[in-house]
Amino acid sequence: MSNFDFDLFVIGAGSGGVRASRVAASHGARVAVAEEHRVGGTCVIRGCVPKKLLVYGAHFAEDLKDARHFGWDVPDCKFDWDRLRDNVLAEVTRLEGLYGQTLDNHQVTLFKTRATIVGPQKVRLADGQEITAERILIATGGWPFVPEFPGSEHAITSNEVFHLDKLPKRVVIAGGGYIANEFAGIFNEFGSKVTIVNRGDTILRGYDEQIRDRLLQISMTKGIEFKFNAPFESIEKKADGSLTVHLGNSDPIDADIVLFAAGRVPNTKGLGLEEVGVELDRDGAITVDETNQSSVASIYAVGDVTNRIQLTPVAIREGQAFADSVFGGKPTVVDYANVPSAVFSHPPIGAVGMTEAEARNKLGTVRVYTSDFRAMKNVLAGRNERALYKMVVNEATDQVVGLHMIGPDAPEILQAAAVAVKAGLTKAAFDATVALHPSMAEELVLLK
Fold this sequence. Notes:
Blueprint: E1 6-11, H1 15-26, E2 31-34, H2 41-46, H3 48-67, H4 81-105, E3 109-111, E4 115-119, E5 122-125, E6 130-138, E7 142-144, E8 156-157, E9 170-174, H5 178-189, E10 193-197, H6 209-222, E11 225-227, E12 232-237, E13 243-247, E14 253-255, E15 257-260, E16 264-266, E17 299-301, H7 312-327, E18 341-343, E19 349-353, H8 356-363, E20 366-373, H9 376-381, E21 387-394, E22 400-406, H10 410-422, H11 427-431
Parallel strand pairs: 1-2, 1-6, 2-3, 6-17, 8-15, 9-10, 9-15, 10-11
Antiparallel strand pairs: 4-5, 5-6, 7-16, 12-13, 13-14, 18-19, 19-22, 20-21, 21-22
């Protein structure tokens, strides 16, 4: 029997932490996990899941209008924010219970409190209790970044946006990444006046230029306003509770809420990491090797707290790899090549592999194929919104090295297509595949 209280102590019960906990326990380890907020972490509680449910709700705004073109006598409908909000929060609570049940079923001890590290193999709970563990895993994820400026305390983040008392009429969103564009689409469909404010001059850095330009064009057509190169100077709160946003290089904007979606930072503050010698990078992320081990041999980290790829499925893969390697006798290293991603904007984006610019810089000579079309549903509905599919091919090998899509159901289609890119299939293999007609996905095998 070990001299430690537990074989593994996990700080953070999000996607990565829960996966690591239950898999380690299934390998016979004595496991405990501490969570100071709610079991499930960012994705389940205040991220991917509730956001996607809002995206579904927002889509009905256009679907109900389009239904009339398909023969349905749909009356004018009124949106009820309170009902959707409460239903989404109820689903989040249900999922939280399932995550807790998973830990319980695997005999993982759960401490619903904050834990900090006080030694290489010791943690301290908020009540002062100290617990020893042979290994410690940090899986505390990321936290929304809000810069400090006069009035910044009046802004909210994605942590609070799911709990709004009422639907705001005017929304200012700070940032140009996927969270900003997703909530811009959501609130715009709900009828709010939306303005995206970006201190830079582009949206969705890291995505293919043609795809992000298409989203910008469509978003502006839908009524979303963009302010580029406009840093925040201050937020003024008025007597009636409304806000006035003062920007550099732009006129002031009146708003009911200001939502900061300007990225997330590793959630490492106050954990005691530096005091025990855990190395952090300049962003505050835990530096780990390919086995998820930190500079302290007994301390590991997975997920957004390491700032490698901030995606839930990646955190889950890392948690699984850690548990299998350390407790299961199956050394596993996560492969970060060709990780697919999506932006659940209106319309959504799916992407895997290299952008055209990245491919040209790395490979030199590439071939690019595009299909720019109106989805059949949009044609009958009288919508001019066009989808864009893009394939990037290595000229030397004919290998497909990138797929980028914007249009209805793009993430659903991209997930299957990502298998082909991961497998290293060639353009010839796509060409040899018979099209599934009529579908939007068939465009991927008809690119000329």
